Every structure is written in C-alpha cells, then in structure tokens.
Amino acid sequence: MSQLSMHTPVIDITITEFDGAIVSLDWGWSPFQESTPLLVEAKRQLDAYFDGELTRFDLPLCPMGTKHQEQVWKAMREIPYGETRTYGDLASEIGSAAQAVGTACGRNPIPILIPCHRIVASAGKLGGYSGDGGLYTKRALLVLEGALTVEEGKALEEAGALD
Q1: Which of 3.30.1450.10, 3.40.50.2300, 1.10.10.10, 2.60.40.10 would CATH assign to domain 67-158?
Q2: What is the pTM of this model?
Q3: Which of 105, 116, 144, 147 is catalytic?
Q4: Sheet holding 13-18, edge to edge
C-alpha cells in the first residue's frame, strides 16, 4: 500500500493505492508518503480538476464495499461534472431506496473521484457530507464544478443550511 498527500484549494487529502488501483481518498495529511506512478497521475488529475481543467477522472479505482454500495458508487461516477442528482433520483435509477443511497454515499471510500458530493437532498437542500469540513466542503466542490453559484453557496450558509 502506498500513499501520497496533497494540498487542494478546498482541503488537504491523502490518496491510497493498493495493487494498482486507488482504494481510498482520505481527508488530511499522512506522514507515510510513498509515491508511485499511479499516485503521481492521480495527483496530476486532481490538480487539473481543482484548476477547472478536468471534468472526468480516468483512474483505476477499487472501492471496497457491499454489492449495493458498489452499485451506488458506480452510478455516482456516471453523474456528469457540474450536475447533481437527488438521493431519490439515484435510488430510482438503480432500483434502491433513497436512504440506502445516502448510507452508501456516507461510506464512499474515494470521495471526489467517486463524486458523492453531486448527490443532494430534494427541495434544494445539500443533504449530508461525510468528508472533513462537512457541508462546507460539499458546497465548495459544487461551486468549483459550477453546480452551485457562489451566491447560491453563500445563501445556503446564511440560511444556516451548512451547519
């Protein structure tokens, strides 16, 4: 297992590779750094994403979860950059329940690369986000992608929707 940490405009992250695939993306900085060609490529793609130059990742991913979680994560990867789906929309698409989709989102081991931030609640609410920084991080990612305007993001904060 190898790890590479990086700074992003939103938060520090650590990418973990095992057996030729990305297995996790964690919040924060790891003291255990071991660069591999795949991790360098993942960092390059993430840098391009945060610079607004990349809208789809092309990396081997191997998230570990239940069959249902893997089905949800696969469907999330099909949501285009700059778009969102509600928990209910994704549940209908894969024949599941919205709450089960929410649980799978919360257990996503590779956030950003598997874009759980693109799953929102109905009625214009953000829903939840298990990543460090919670809904502030989710909002920042959606603003970065253009799914929310800066003004919409500020309005959510002023309404107390990020707490």
Answers
A1: 1.10.10.10
A2: 0.91
A3: 116
A4: 2-6, 13-18, 21-27
